[in-house]
């Protein structure tokens, strides 16, 4: 995450405008004049400038000096270029052309490989020396989102044969024109320690196991589909990954701790009805069991570690946390304020409307002393105060927690100390549930508290793989690598960062503790990228379409054969169509390649197919495919209108009247063409034909 900070800083100063007088002064302070910068940009980027208005600005950041050049036209668009005022190097470039049409998700005219060649040629021309010092980083989904008009390419800086992710070159190429639409570099001068006299990779792995390590724990898997329940999964995971100093072996832990993610998506929303639905009746019945506002207020006042004397209650609300519902109970939330000595103070507090437990409070921090003064309470004393309070208000829950750490840094932010306790279930960590409590070291006052505790069932810890087996799976799939990283001195915020050489294990997912399967943060199996290697499609009329869909992940590469002439089953067509309608990295998505039920659930929810039409292993006829494709286009209701469609296929008499609209639409859009004047409605669709029609589906300007 931190590696993007320099990129953001770069954008701030690369495009910062200054007053004209500053530009005039810059002429004398830079090696490259404004005139030279303009000539460099026009020559290297092929900018004519004709028909554009032109403006320029100059910006500086430490020793970095940049000319910002802009050509603007209401009809032609905008071209922006930044040129290093000392070296004459183009450090950023972007172009925008106005259009009245939004970009639509379509299969691009050019492949990623064709665009990649353009990106590489561009970099070799614009910044050849820097380009030689990079390696390409291939993203998880290399073709990018359907809704992205550009292919993106990232080239990471390499120093002494070691990656430096904070620096790199970035290029975007239009999928349908092969024009470079934007480029920028993030490249700074640092002193890099040489990889000499460092610990070995084996030693780094040993330190990782001893000081960071995998832990048997529960992961919270949030619902992906409507009516699906929250559940827990027993996994091995790393809940605080961190780099290891390659010279000293010291673990550089993050300044702040963030609980292990679960992952969630919103389920489809149903339509409201005037009459009470069973769900609405259930909610009404549940609400009758909630404690009253007055009772919740009484609990809050009795549970808070300070008095509310003088505070005025400004608001009260009863709500459900939509992120976790129904894994959490509804909550009463209150807000008080106080005006004293021309200052305003506030208190927020929340109470569980079912259990009556205080779940959260926060108050204005007062009486903060000067940084240079010594706090009255030590970290140990504050921890004792915190634990005594937690034992009073939530004894049973606190008993089932494990102290994680004190996450504030007294050298950087001495005003507050935050303590974190992670939930345990039968001795196994459940880090998605936790308690955090913050105290003022000058007064000993508790200033905030948060209880994050879900209502879920926990899988019994039975038949799990051993820790050694989990480590083998992890290290067989993820390498302990040397990286250069930026190290910020938080004691001196204004000091520039230094480069450190570290070992890092780039793993932030899970290992299923029962099966050993590698999982992502959503609890789904991690599928590694694989190139299209089908051996039975060369020379096939649909070869290009098959390869394209395989690269997009719509066709899964399992084995080396696609069987293009084989009839496609309904379940496989539904699977491919759903992945076409909904890109494979969107959620919700199935948990495995064989999870056909989830694909059917999605298809039925999108009205692509009716529940009674489900017949997984049957071959899909061309007529059935036409109906599903038209429904996927969300115009099935139009196809159902009688007597407004006509078709001219020679076999139109073989097409039922209620299906004529579907055939008319699908053939009119050139998605399914037929041959020799025939549509062949009852002929089974082959796997090659399925690939071709799905590519044409994506080419439709929806």
TrEMBL record:
InterPro entries: SLH_dom, YcdB/YcdC_rep_domain. Residues 529-643, 646-702 form the SLH domain. It comes from the Bacteria. The keyword Iron does not apply. It holds the Pfam family DUF4901. The keyword Repeat applies. Residues 1-26 form the signal peptide. PROSITE patterns: SLH. Keywords: Repeat, Signal. This is SLH domain-containing protein. It comes from Caldanaerobacter subterraneus subsp. tengcongensis (strain DSM 15242 / JCM 11007 / NBRC 100824 / MB4) (Thermoanaerobacter tengcongensis).
């Amino acid at each position: 995450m931190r590696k993007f900070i320099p990129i953001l800083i770069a954008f701030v100063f690369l495009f910062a405008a200054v007053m004209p007088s500053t530009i005039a002064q810059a002429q004398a302070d830079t090696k490259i004049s404004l005139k030279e910068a303009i000539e460099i940009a026009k020559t290297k980027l092929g900018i004519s400038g004709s028909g554009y208005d032109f403006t320029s600005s100059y910006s500086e950041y430490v020793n970095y000096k940049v000319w910002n050049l802009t050509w603007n036209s209401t009809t032609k668009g905008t071209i922006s270029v930044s040129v290093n005022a000392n070296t004459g190097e183009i450090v950023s470039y972007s172009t925008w052309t106005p259009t009245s049409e939004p970009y639509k998700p379509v299969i691009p005219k050019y492949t990623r490989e064709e665009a990649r060649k353009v990106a590489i040629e561009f970099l070799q021309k614009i910044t050849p020396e820097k380009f030689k010092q990079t390696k390409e980083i291939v993203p998880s989904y290399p073709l990018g989102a359907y809704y992205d008009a550009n292919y993106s390419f990232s080239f990471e800086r390499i120093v002494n044969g070691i990656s430096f992710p904070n620096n790199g070159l970035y290029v975007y190429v239009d999928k349908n024109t092969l024009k470079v639409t934007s480029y920028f570099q993030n490249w700074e001068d640092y002193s890099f320690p040489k990889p000499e006299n460092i610990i070995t990779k084996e030693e780094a792995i040993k330190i990782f196991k001893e000081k960071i390590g995998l832990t048997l724990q529960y992961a919270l898997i949030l619902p992906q589909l409507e009516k699906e329940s929250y559940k827990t999964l027993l996994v091995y995971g790393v809940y605080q990954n961190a780099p290891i100093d390659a010279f000293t072996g010291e673990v550089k832990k993050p300044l702040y701790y963030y609980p292990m993610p679960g992952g969630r998506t919103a389920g489809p929303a149903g339509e409201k009805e005037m009459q009470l639905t069973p769900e609405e009746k259930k909610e009404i019945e549940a609400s009758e069991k909630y404690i009253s506002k007055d009772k919740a207020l009484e609990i809050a006042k009795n549970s808070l570690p300070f008095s509310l004397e003088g505070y005025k209650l400004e608001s009260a609300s009863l709500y459900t946390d939509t992120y976790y519902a129904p894994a959490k109970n509804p909550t009463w939330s209150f807000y008080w304020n106080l005006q004293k000595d021309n200052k305003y103070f506030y208190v927020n507090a929340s109470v569980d409307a079912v259990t009556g437990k205080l779940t959260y409070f926060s108050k204005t921090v007062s009486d903060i002393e000067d940084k240079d003064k010594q706090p009255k309470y030590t970290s140990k004393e504050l921890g004792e105060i915190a634990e005594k309070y937690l034992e009073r208000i939530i004894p049973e829950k606190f008993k089932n927690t494990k102290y994680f750490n004190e996450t504030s840094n007294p050298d950087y932010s001495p005003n507050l100390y935050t303590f974190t306790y992670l939930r345990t279930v039968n001795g196994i960590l459940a880090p998605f549930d936790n308690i955090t409590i913050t105290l003022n070291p000058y007064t000993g006052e508790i200033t905030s508290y948060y209880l994050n505790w879900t209502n879920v069932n926990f899988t019994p810890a039975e038949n799990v793989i051993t820790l050694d087996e989990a480590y083998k799976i992890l290290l067989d799939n993820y390498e302990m690598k040397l990286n250069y990283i930026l190290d910020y001195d938080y004691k001196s915020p204004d000091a520039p960062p230094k480069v450190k050489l570290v070992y890092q294990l780039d793993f932030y997912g899970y290992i299923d503790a029962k099966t050993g399967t590698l999982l992502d943060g959503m609890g789904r199996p991690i599928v590694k990228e694989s190139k299209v290697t089908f051996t039975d499609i060369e020379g096939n009329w649909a070869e290009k379409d098959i390869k394209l869909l395989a690269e997009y992940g719509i066709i899964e590469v399992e084995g080396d054969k696609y069987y293009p002439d084989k009839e496609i089953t309904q379940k496989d067509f539904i699977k491919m169509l759903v992945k076409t309608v909904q890109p494979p990295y969107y959620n919700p998505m199935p948990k495995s390649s064989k999870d056909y039920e989830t694909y059917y659930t999605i298809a039925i929810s999108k009205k692509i197919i009716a529940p009674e039409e489900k017949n997984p292993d049957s071959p899909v006829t061309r007529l059935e495919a036409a109906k599903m494709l038209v429904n996927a286009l969300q115009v099935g209701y139009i196809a159902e209108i009688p007597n407004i469609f006509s078709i001219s296929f020679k076999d139109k008499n073989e097409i039922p009247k209620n299906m004529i609209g579907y055939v008319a639409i699908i053939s009119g859009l050139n998605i399914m063409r037929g041959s020799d004047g025939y549509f062949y409605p009852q002929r089974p669709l082959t796997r090659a034909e399925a690939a071709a029609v799905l590519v044409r589906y994506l080419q439709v300007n929806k």
